[in-house]
Amino acid sequence: LLLLPDRVKAICTLNGQVVFEDVFTEKFGPLKRMVKDPVIGQIWIHTERAVFRYHVEREPRDVWKMYMSMGKFDLAKEYCKDRPECIDMVLAKEADHCFQNKKYKESAKCYALTQNYFEEIALKFIEAKQEEALMEYLLKKLSNLKPSEKIQITLLTTWLTELYLNRLGMLESDTSKRSLYLKSRDEFRSFLSSPRNKECLFNNRASIHDLLASHGDTENMVYFAVLMQDYERVVAHHCQHDDYDEALHVLTKHRDEKLFYKFSPVLMQHIPRKVVDSWIMMGKRLDPKNLIPALVNYSQSAGTHINEAIRYMEFCVFELKETEQ
């Protein structure tokens, strides 16, 4: 506060600007002295003819604006942390500042915390060709959504999947970026396996599978199928790629009778001994009648090989005590 003969001025110590001015008329005479009450904080000013009292309330209420204009965003947020509408303005200003200075990822993190229009911000990063920053923005936005906001969650999850696959596709073709590819792949798998995204991914698993298939990403397609416990798709994939041992391993591990019945005819053509071993291990969980197609196909093409069909039938008779013809 400055005391002048005819007025009182309050000057901000941060920027030197006058934030308050009170002018006195001549009838009171010149201002003589200003005193502050150290207990209650009131300010007293007197002339030879009058005494005036000032009560200062919420003095720092606009300090955040000054810090914001000075680019001191952390301090600005500290001074308005209990005022959400002001915090939003500071974050938006900080995000703009970072964007203009090409600090795109930092900008994305700030934008994600604001109430700015989603489409507007996403378009900014797209036009600037900043895909990493866009992904950062979408990930942060996704983490801030409530479980009830299912449409928005589905939109962001699908979009992020597409962006991850685009990135992996570009990196995979460049052998000099192998380490970056592996890092991105791990990030993508962490995204797919995140408990927070589990419900959305499960409900939209067909769309995600289609995306993976459209990019020809069989490795991650199998990974996702396992996450979704879609073992039929996993076994089918291994069979299509002649990886019969791995297909049988999946069957044996998850012990799904229906999948055994479905894939045994194919597997018996290639690894009959291992298949029969797995049948025997499954014991009474398998109904021998449902394995007849696999046994018949194998018997017709077994040639001089050991007839594994007979071995399994003997197991059924002597161990399972099957008596049906």
Regarding quaternary structure, what we see is single chain
What global shape is seen? rod-shaped
Order of SSEs: EEEEEEHHHHHHHHHHHHHHHHH
Structural class: mainly alpha
- Poorly predicted tracts of residues: none
Rg calculated over all Cα atoms: 36 Å
The largest sheet has its strands arranged as 1-2-3
Count of DSSP H/I helices: 17
Give the helix proportion (percent range): 55-70%
User: How far do the termini sit from each other?
Assistant: 107 Å
Largest sheet: 3 strands, antiparallel
| Portion in strands | 5-15%
Q: List how many beta strands DSSP finds.
A: 6
Mean pLDDT, all residues:
88
Membrane topology: Peripheral membrane protein
Domain Pep3/Vps18 beta-propeller: 1-56
Main location: membrane
Pfam families: Pep3_Vps18
Describe the structure.
With about 325 residues, this protein is mostly helical. Helix content is about 60%, strand content about 10%. Among the domains are: about 55 residues, no CATH class; about 80 residues. The strands form two sheets. It has a three-stranded antiparallel beta sheet with strand order 1-2-3, with no helix packed on it. The model has no long low-confidence stretch (mean pLDDT about 90).
Summarize the structure.
Helix content is 60%, strand content 8%. The chain has 325 residues and is mainly alpha-helical. It is a peripheral membrane protein.
Descriptors:
single chain, 325 residues, mainly alpha, three-stranded antiparallel sheet, 17 helices, 6 strands, 8% strand, Pep3/Vps18_beta-prop, Vacuolar protein sorting 18 homolog, protein-macromolecule adaptor activity, zinc ion binding, zinc
